[in-house]
Amino acid sequence: MCWGEDMQKEINARDRARADICLKCTVCAKARKEQKGFAYWLVKKIEGGLCPCCQAYERVYGHKAHEPIPVNG
Asked: 57 partner at 20 to 30 Å CA-CA among 23, 28, 40, 73?
């Protein structure tokens, strides 16, 4: 199945569980917090292609796993 830009995959319970793993992941958390260094580089390079948790994080939260968590307000 090929997904176009206008088609979005529905977020399910598995996506939410994987996104929660990414949120608690030590490497991803460090990358989000520090925005530099080896952890940042590693997460930025592998998130889209290899890690299903990072991919789910992007689907659920709407931003990449290496990007800082947006502050509302």
From this structure: 73
How far apart (Å, rounded) are the C-alpha atoms in residues 63 and 73? 18
Kind plus residue range of the DSSP H or E element containing 38: helix 37-46
Plot region of 7 (φ>0 → left; ψ -120 to 50 → alpha; else → beta):
beta
Encoding tokens for residue 70? 């947006």
List Cβ neighbours of 61 (8 Å cut-off, separation of 6 or more).
19
The number of beta carbons lying within 10 Å of the beta carbon of residue 62 is 9
Q: Which residue range forms the structural domain that includes residue 48?
A: 13-61
pTM of the complete model: 0.80
Question: Scanning the structure block, which residue is given the tokens 């030590």?
Answer: 26
In total, how many domains does the chain have?
1
Over residues 4-60, the pLDDT tens digits come to 444 467 899 999 999 999 999 999 999 999 999 999 999 998 877 899 999 999 999
